[in-house]
Amino acid sequence: MPTIYIDGTAYEVEEGKNLLEACLNLGLDLPYFCWHPSMGSIGSCRQCAMVQYQNEEDTRGRIVMGCMTPVTDGARLSLQGDTASEFRESVIESLMLNHPHDCPVCAEGGECHLQDMTVMVGHRDRNYRGKKNTHRNQYLGPLINHEMNRCISCYRCVRFYRDYAGGTDLAALASHDHVYFGRHQDGVLQSEFAGNLVEVCPTGVFTDKPLVDDYSRKWDLQSAPSICVGCAVGCNTSPGERYGRLKRIQNRYNQQVNGYFLCDRGRFGADFVNSESRLNFAGVRQEDGSDKGSYKAIRADDALSEVAGLCQQGTVAGIGSPRASVEANYLLRRFVGTKHFSNGMSDVESALVNQILETLKNTRAISPSIHQIESADAVLILGEDVSNTAPRLALALREAARNKGRELAAEMRLEPWMDAAIKNLAQDQYSPIFIAGVHENRLNDIAEAGVSLAPDDIARLGFAIAAEISGGRAIDAVENLDADLSALAGTIASTLKAAKNPLIVSGSSLLNSAVIESAAAVADVLSNEQENVFLSLSVPECNSVGTAMLGEGMSFKDMMDSASQGNIDTLIVLENDLYRRAPSEDVDKLLENIKQLVVLDSLDNATLSKSQIALPTATFAESEGTMVSSEGRAQRYYPVFVAEDDRLASWQWLSELGQVLGLSGFDQLEHFDQVEQTCAGEIPALSGIASAAPDHEFRNRGLKIPRQPARYSGRTAMRADVSVHEPKQPVDDETPLSFSMEGLGVGQPSSLMTSSWSPGWNSNQSIQKFQDEAGGAIKGGSSGVRLIESGQSLGDGLNAHTRSVPTAFHPSDTESLLIPVYRVFGSDELSSQAPAIAEMSGDAQFVISSESAAKLEVVDGDGVSANINGVEVTLEACVDPSLAEGCVGFTTGMPGTESLVATAVGLIVSLRKADSWQRRKPQLIATDNPNAPTVTNQQSLQSGVSHV
Amino acid sequence: MSEQQLIQSDIALSAEEIQQIDAELAHMPQKSGAAIDALKIVQRQRGWISDESLMAIARYLDMSPEALEGVATFYNLIYRQPVGNKVVLFCDSVSCWICGCDGVKQKISEKLGVDYGETTADNQYTLIPVPCLGACDKAPVMMVGDDLHTNLNNEKIDQIFSGQVSTTASTTESTAESTTTSEEEGS
Amino acid sequence: MNNSLIENSTTENPLIEKVLTRNIGPDLKPTDMTAYEANGGYRALHKVMSGMSSEDCLEVIKASNLRGRGGAGFPTGMKWSFVPMGDKCSPGHKYLVCNADEMEPGTFKDRLLMECDPHQLIEGMILAAYTIEADRSYIFIRGEYVVAIERLEQALADCYKKGYLGENILGSGYDLEMHVHTSAGRYICGEETALINALEGKRANPRAKPPFPQVSGLWGRPTIVNNVETLCNISHIIDKGPEWFQSLGLGEDAGTKLYGASGHVKTPGCWELPIGTPVREILEKHAGGMADGRKLKGFLPGGGSTDFLVEEHLDLPMDYGSIGAAGSRMGTGTMIILDNQTCPIGMVLNLIRFFAHESCGFCTPCREGLPWTRQVLEDIEAGHGRKEDLDTLLRQVKYIGAIGNTHCALAPGAMEPLQSALKYFQSDFEAHVEQGCCPYSRPLENQRGEST
Ligand SMILES: Cc1cc2nc3c(=O)[nH]c(=O)nc-3n(C[C@H](O)[C@H](O)[C@H](O)COP(=O)(O)O)c2cc1C
Ligand code: SF4
Ligand code: FES
């Protein structure tokens, strides 16, 4: 370990770091802007200046940029000396020449890195007498606000957006002190990672638009550690609340999972918590002759006894949900009995998730964390469009692609943080990524090769690769494989074999078990030869894995059969819209065959409107629970604020029901920890969840952990219209967190970090104060616990594969194979209820090939109809020239296609042009189209001038 | 997601432009490498780079309009606003300044009725300042179109622009930058 | 012809051996292939292609003590020796780039060499490329040099025809492509790493070093960037040997140099003289001394980004070491003369305005600091200056002026005239502030008044 001397003190530092990292890791405050732990150094802001001396005799030294200077043994440096301090102050003073003095009205105020750094260098007085440059701002869509006047040109936005996240529609424009970061014209930012600009920008240029429209300061936000419910990746979040409203989602650093970044579905989709269609009170259905009926609000107690009454009359069955917590599912299962419990997935989905679970348990490959995925040096993606089904994972794959550059750099002895140098060196060379999908996706730009194939053919390619790798030993060659594919299989096989950390990505989204099996086969034969083989399998929902781990219960079909035989009197549905799980006729029939339906859910939906009794549940933001991500990582989320009105966490409703009914053991299931521990004790696969986070008795040096920051203001003022007396803060008996600012929020385990703050570091950049090294794990370890350890069962992994290689798909001239297509905005049930996401998502579509489009004589935006299972479905056409031959896609989970994913898979349909169709008016500013009537910039813009 | 499709623009690249761009591409390992050349080629044909031209080039080079805009707005000699038939590149660098270019500039402005960044009413000339033209021993100098004019004085300006009647200029904002930056009172 | 460049550039002096300008007559006619070859052109190329190895060439250039003529004066042979050669280089292209982006205020030498003797440059480039085993080469030339571009294109076509370029040059087995790239205009493109970005079709932000272009430059491959004048010397050195080249210089430095003078001197122009010729000789003998009625106040020895020198420095030899020791830089060797009737603050303001506009906008001190400096100078020049403004300027010089404080050398270069003006012309600054106006009457017309 090199020793460096800073202002006369000797420090041991890690090799291969730059001086800025070294200082931060030592806990020293060195201001910076352009450097980012995930993006490395470019040396543009010149803020991290230090003085380096040549030797002990050298008293003048010279200014060096900390972020651009490697640590060297014996280096003599000054951080505090006048030369360095004065220079750093000059830099801030320069940045302030044009920066508006609008902190009071700036959404970044109070968590602004520029504010922090300004205070840190001690700059105060303005010497510049000139005018400030001002810019016109752009309309960037419903998610992000643009206020260019605040820009300090650190280049972080474009480095993140373009270089890191692969976006194309944001760039640095113009030059000298007119540099401008924006789009070519006003319009919606196209990257699904745009929201990270809010956190990446060290000042208030890019801000969270929904937050700005319903604004609170960071110091007035109550936060708790949470987990994103947008998909199965399980990103860690820090939601912020005030006035009973979820104001925003901020990234919560977890080195193993999301690191510093989230996707926009996660960041902006959580707004469903504030939806108008939230249920506030329990309701009893009153028949009013209409189909829907109406509901009479009843007191929670009465609702409980009503439900208890129903449950005493005959058999009760329960349907759980992959979007509800492990604990809520467990309690429902316990409440209705294992025999009468279904996990709430569609039958197709349930089989696939179980297959995945079994695969991960039995394979010798590692189920990698997102962080491990970033270390892959060769990737094969079979069938999964991760950009839309697991976006954060797609971002990790982009990072993996850059490993090639790091390799080249290492050969030239360049440090891995020399970002620009590596980029210049590598140019467009990436670590190999091979993609077989039903259509091209947003990762194809960095792919070494991509093919569009029907699902069965993807599986065949996968098996062929496995056969190549095993040299025909473990897996038989795939018959009748087309010569091109065969050659491709050979290339992929040798590339994967040559890699140090090969990664196979697949998942359930194509609803094709052979695809998953082929991915597993590749991983397994690779594991015969290599140690670090990664197999990442995506599943549909935030807790699909956790729910599946409860064990197989009744299938949907079992449930239907049972009901039709009159064996179910009362059905309790937990946080699940059955109309997304089975064809509506089937659901209707099921509901007709039972006597009563009780639904616990947070938002209105089709199933809920059929219930006799509806119980309003808390969302992830108002309750605690454990979810298991696709990696197999169990993670705990905590209530950010107390659920209003009669909302209760699902587990609580069920616990109380059990108690009202006097069910055995339910007196011991009164508290969350009891439920969770009982579940862990009873179900071996889930035994680990107890260690996902500390229990409610945990105290941080004797104190609870505050959800509110120390400067939380206006406890009395915020209710002044009601009473000027300070209300008693709600008590939290279930967790180690408190609903107040009292307590100790420093030094707790990372699973209990509510938000990130440190003296002098008010922005999210304060995270470095909680790490041993920049970009490393939070002190004390990354939160969450892995429930599936790889390579556990070293048994004969290969034989586990039945190797049922499907036959090749033969496209027909007249009909097409129906396949699901996913949209990051729109396919997910809950996030689609967030207004900003709804604005992004557009309508459901049939995705058709260019040939089909030509044959049907339709273009983008026309209507296309198909008869699916006897139902006429008409959707907008989206022409995708890359679609596999003979296929037609439907966008899943959107109005009009909700249940198709459960019902219409593998069907052959014939398409025709819709008889009558009203083209949708373009909702988004279509300024990319030169012929479009100009929706003029000026009108849609906010005023571009800030008065300072 | 709501991917906006770029709708084919009517203003495609001409065969001649494509041929010239292809010639440049032959020297480039990456298509985007010819960005500046392509902008210059199209500008030579069309006088300036309109949004439509920019998008046509971007499409041809497989670049996003943003990436190409970043390049186009970086360079002084790519015009993102219409210019006159000829651009007057007036050197206002140090040697020319010492030798009195300010007065010559004033003369041109009077003669043509334009200031920097403006185009004459008859669309003949756009006046733009340029860094040192490398002819300092004959200062002051300027280029009108492709022609260099040296040792400028008032008479010469009269000769060069003889026949030009002074009228009010059309209002073109700044010169080569699309990002308009105006000045606002500071505090 | 409109762009006849330098009428006064050919002051005959039989004692001085003309090397780079030997083909350039008073009429400034371009030298075509026939004329060039008739005067010994491509002799060096033949010599090398029929038996000299790259190592041989490198040794000759190293021994010649040739230093870069682009401004920094880095020894050319040493620069070339950093290029990985033979098996030590990973497979792929290597590049030689000629920096013909001449845009340094007050600099007008490369234009002359390219317009009047394009083959001299091309021959030098072929030899340079051969020495570093490059197979691709570019001439990166500013777009305004219309005539030079045309003539270089013509010369290149002639070379391809004669087999001096392309595959298997003169049967040697060596292949080289050469291409003219015209810039879209920006001073920063002259900075070699920014130039590389511009060649890649990108925004011309300079790159951080390391890695140096010699190992990772154009498209990540080994690349050498040299100035036009530097490259023009190569064929002569190969042809006549390093000792001859060394003998041309008057002092420590080797070879000849294109010197120039602009401003209010009697005969502004550009002359090839032995490197190390005293300033006074250039100014008084070649430039004819100050224009009538004007006195020397100071001069920038080598373009707009060099420090002012004054009368006391007139007897210094114009070479890297002497000018450096006096606190300035020889830079491009083309002097800008400040006379006693021209306001030094106005002149510095003009330069700072240029540099502020030409900043690429990448790093803070340059992007923000230069416009600030410009604003202060504008105030002073307009008579709104305050006493404390001088401190501000001193602070700006300290903040922006040191290499390393900024990402590239543009901003420190921009500070050089200002910092030296503050030293030599302090009383002028004070007078502006005290009198509340500029004490100099601004020159509003070309007072030299010649007509061509
Ligand atoms: C801002 C800036 C502008 C420059 N402009 C030029 C130029 O126009 N021409 C040139 O030859 N060198 C220029 N240089 C110097 C080059 O970076 C580089 O040092 C030179 O081309 C190397 O060639 P040489 O070794 O032959 O001198 C410039 C440097 C800087 C920092
Ligand atoms: S330039 Fe470096 S130099 Fe600046 S942070 Fe940015 S962090 Fe540093
Ligand atoms: S200063 Fe104008 S040509 Fe050089």
**Largest pleated sheet of chain C:** 4 strands, parallel
State the end-to-end CA separation of chain C. Answer: 11 Å
Query: For the largest beta sheet of chain C, what order do the strands appear in spatially?
Result: 3-2-1-4
What structural class do helix, strand and pairing data of chain A support? alpha/beta
Mean pLDDT of chain A: 92
Oligomer: heterotrimer
Topology summary:
The complex is a heterotrimer of chains A (948), B (187) and C (452).
Chain A: E1 3-6, E2 9-12, H1 19-25, E3 49-53, E4 62-65, E5 76-78, H2 82-98, H3 113-121, E6 132-135, E7 144-146, H4 156-164, E8 171-173, E9 180-182, H5 196-200, E10 206-208, H6 209-213, E11 222-223, E12 226-227, E13 236-242, E14 245-251, H7 264-269, E15 282-286, E16 294-298, H8 300-312, E17 316-319, H9 326-336, E18 341-342, H10 347-362, H11 370-373, E19 378-382, H12 386-389, H13 391-401, H14 403-411, H15 419-426, E20 433-437, E21 449-452, H16 455-470, H17 483-498, E22 502-507, H18 513-529, E23 534-538, H19 544-549, H20 556-564, E24 570-574, H21 584-592, E25 596-601, E26 613-616, E27 625-628, E28 633-637, H22 650-661, H23 672-682, E29 705-706, E30 737-738, E31 785-786, E32 816-821, H24 835-841, E33 845-848, H25 850-856, E34 863-868, E35 871-879, E36 887-891, H26 900-903, E37 908-909, E38 911-913, H27 937-940
Parallel strand pairs in A: 1-5, 17-18, 17-24, 19-20, 19-22, 20-21, 22-23, 24-25, 25-26, 29-30, 32-36, 33-35
Antiparallel strand pairs in A: 1-2, 3-4, 3-5, 7-10, 8-9, 11-13, 12-13, 13-14, 15-16, 15-26, 27-28, 28-31, 32-37, 33-36, 34-35, 34-38
Helix pairs in contact in A: 8-22, 9-22, 9-23, 10-18, 14-15, 16-17, 16-18, 20-21
Chain B: H1 15-25, H2 35-46, H3 51-60, H4 65-72, E1 86-91, H5 94-98, H6 101-112, E2 125-130, E3 142-144, E4 147-149, H7 154-160, E5 181-184
Parallel strand pairs in B: 1-2
Antiparallel strand pairs in B: 1-3, 3-4
Helix pairs in contact in B: 1-2, 2-3, 3-4
Chain C: H1 33-38, H2 43-49, H3 54-64, H4 76-81, E1 95-100, H5 110-116, H6 118-131, E2 136-141, H7 146-162, E3 177-182, H8 192-199, E4 223-227, H9 228-240, H10 242-248, E5 256-263, E6 269-274, H11 279-286, E7 296-300, H12 320-325, E8 334-339, H13 344-358, H14 364-381, H15 387-401, H16 410-424, H17 426-435
Parallel strand pairs in C: 1-2, 1-4, 2-3, 5-8
Antiparallel strand pairs in C: 5-6, 7-8
Bound molecules: flavin mononucleotide, iron/sulfur cluster and FE2/S2 (inorganic) cluster.
